[in-house]
């Protein structure tokens, strides 16, 4: 059933009206004779939430509580995870299905997932998440980023596995701290941009490096984006260097990102400096958001709720006004859609009926309350109701 | 009913056992004949959550959505609130009762509330929150801080109202940014410490001032605390200056706070530098936490859930390990209790049976999940069950 009359909804918190969906697309005019009807009860209709940065392959959802005693450095978390994955029963297919179903319940219709590729586990993560991607394709769009979590230049054999992951059908080439982790920025970036060129795929790079170091890596990324004509197809995730105290440098980088069409994805972590969302959007940079890891060996928090992520973005950016909270939510909808280069995303006629009904008088109230999602549609099909996905998690 | 056998609970996530409460206090040995029994279902028993910094008089809970279009400066928010309070129907007695009941439902057994005192509204806020304090005294302990939100030295007549508020029975003398808002640090601090001396009451000062300015005000507060022998009875709320980048200055202040027995209360806001919880606790400073304003004209967020606040503290301090998350929760229990100078607080024999049953295998899981509280006890009396307070909000 992908033809539907959705009655009494308020698109983007506007006037109440009926919305017609024909063959999975938003349509003009009245619904066809005999179309199914759903009463939206005056809830707010927004396009599907976009989870633009997560790690479906490594959540501990549904497993016994993991007592975290991991060290403070990034490399401690990476090593601990790689070495304990099997012992803890982190089976990528099952765990990614669990998290993806939770995402659907919370209203996400699109997920970009980084998936670990390393010489210890090979392509097991990729194969597992691909199985979930295919199994859940009518519920949620899942895009895989081949992600060298343990480093690539520092672990011989990883680049070849990255190549195989792309050949298998990963949608995006991932990268990670070309200096901080991989110790060879030129080698790292030449390799992943080389793969991007070879497979005609976009790039999405985790960049935790701060201050001048992150700025240097970002410059190298921008240079390659422009040299290869990849404007619009490159994303920098985290980008903590944009939160540096030297605002002149941050402003210069922001301008360069806009010129090169490089996107930014933020998870708005409270503990570290982050890109300023308003400044990036004002400069014309597309900004998406994600949950990052959810209840994994890195940390206990996260629940795949992109309305909660909008709240975190608002809190981190000190957004209090309604228009500011609306901007935070837009990062989790249209911003993420731009990052993922989604076609037919939105509430316009002809757009895909990937949408969510959220409860509130206004968008800011819906973000503040985060009530269970009344309805989630994927291609006009009901995939979750009252906070529960139509498919049960394994 | 304040004599009770609480069966199958895990105090502080330890071994499962039965807990006896006699006449509202935790007791040793078996329950008296005929005592009522409640099955805790293996949930974790912790002492009652302590909401050590909020503003009961000004929440918009239960009122129509307030479209926030307020300016970015602190003074914009102060002025906007003072001038629109009546128009918006922010009636202190009703609004404080609404928020306090929500707090009880979420497991708070003690609340320290700052309450506005100004020449526009006089003592209306104080009288309203006092009415709630008295009405709900069997459900939750509410302590009032007379709080010169609009400034005191800059608004003649306010100091006299502060004096009247203390005479009426406020438990704590409040202060606010001696430099940043009140423009006269000596005048401001002499006045509020004078009131504290006169009424034999503790002091709790909002200090948003950053960097060197906040450090200067904090030094003045420490000097007065020591000069007046008020060690253990002075709290600095927010204390953003401790989050300054010059760690030497922050460490020096921390040492001085510990020496003077000055407490810190944090709300762990994501957007601004904050005191480092671990460093303060290590130095011997009592650290409590609070929700700050909840859904008010300052901002749309907040829900009075101190387990959520523990998560915010963890996120802000980059606490990921279980022992770190336990530290974050301790700020919302024993830390707040130290700030409020509560007697008989805890789970020991003879302590008041103010306690909460939270769901989880471990404390970290309970903080990460934040499921509705299974049971909340105040003096051994059930005041909330399964997330619902026994009293309905007005």
From TrEMBL, chains A, B:
Amidohydrolase domain span: 112-384
Xref: Pfam families: Amidohydro_3
GO molecular function: hydrolase activity, acting on carbon-nitrogen (but not peptide) bonds, in cyclic amidines
Superkingdom of this protein's organism: Bacteria
Gene3D superfamilies documented for this protein: Metal-dependent hydrolases, Urease, subunit C, domain 1
Annotated protein name in UniProt: Cytosine deaminase
Organism: Acuticoccus sediminis
């Amino acid at each position: 059933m992908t033809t539907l009359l959705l009655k009494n909804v308020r698109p983007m918190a506007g006037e109440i009206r009926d919305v017609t969906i024909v063959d999975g697309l938003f349509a003009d005019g009245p619904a066809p004779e005999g179309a199914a009807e759903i009463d939206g009860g005056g809830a707010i209709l927004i396009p599907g939430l976009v989870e633009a940065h997560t790690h479906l392959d490594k959540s501990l959802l549904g497993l016994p509580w993991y007592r975290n005693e991991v060290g403070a450095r990034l490399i401690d978390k990476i090593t601990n995870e790689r070495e304990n994955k099997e012992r803890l029963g982190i089976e990528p297919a099952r765990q990614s299905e669990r998290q993806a179903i939770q995402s659907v319940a919370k209203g996400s219709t699109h997920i970009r997932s980084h998936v670990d590729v390393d010489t210890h586990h090979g392509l097991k993560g990729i194969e597992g998440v691909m199985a979930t991607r295919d199994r859940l394709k009518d519920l949620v769009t899942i895009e895989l980023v081949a992600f060298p979590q343990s480093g690539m230049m520092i672990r011989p054999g990883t680049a070849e596995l990255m190549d195989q992951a792309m050949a298998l059908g990963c949608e995006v080439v991932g990268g990670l701290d070309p200096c901080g982790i991989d110790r060879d920025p030129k080698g790292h970036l030449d390799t992943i941009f080389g793969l991007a060129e070879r497979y005609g795929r976009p790039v999405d790079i985790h960049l935790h490096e701060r201050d001048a170091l992150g700025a240097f890596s970002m410059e190298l990324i921008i240079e390659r984006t422009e040299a290869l004509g990849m404007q619009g197809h490159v994303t920098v995730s985290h980008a903590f260097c944009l939160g540096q105290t030297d605002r002149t440098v941050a402003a210069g980088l922001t301008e360069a990102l806009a010129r090169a069409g490089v996107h930014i994805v933020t998870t708005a972590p409270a503990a570290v400096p982050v890109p300023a969302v308003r400044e990036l959007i004002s400069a014309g940079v597309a900004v998406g958001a994600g949950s990052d890891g959810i209840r994994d060996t890195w940390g206990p928090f996260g629940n795949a709720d992109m309305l909660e992520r909008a709240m975190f973005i608002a809190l981190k950016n000190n957004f209090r006004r309604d228009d500011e909270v609306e901007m935070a939510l837009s990062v989790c909808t249209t911003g993420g859609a731009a990052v993922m280069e989604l076609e037919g995303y939105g509430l316009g006629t002809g757009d895909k009926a990937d949408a969510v009904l959220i409860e509130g008088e206004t968008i800011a109230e819906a973000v503040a309350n985060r009530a269970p999602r009344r309805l989630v549609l994927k291609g006009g099909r009901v995939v979750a109701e009252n906070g529960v996905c139509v498919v049960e998690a394994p």
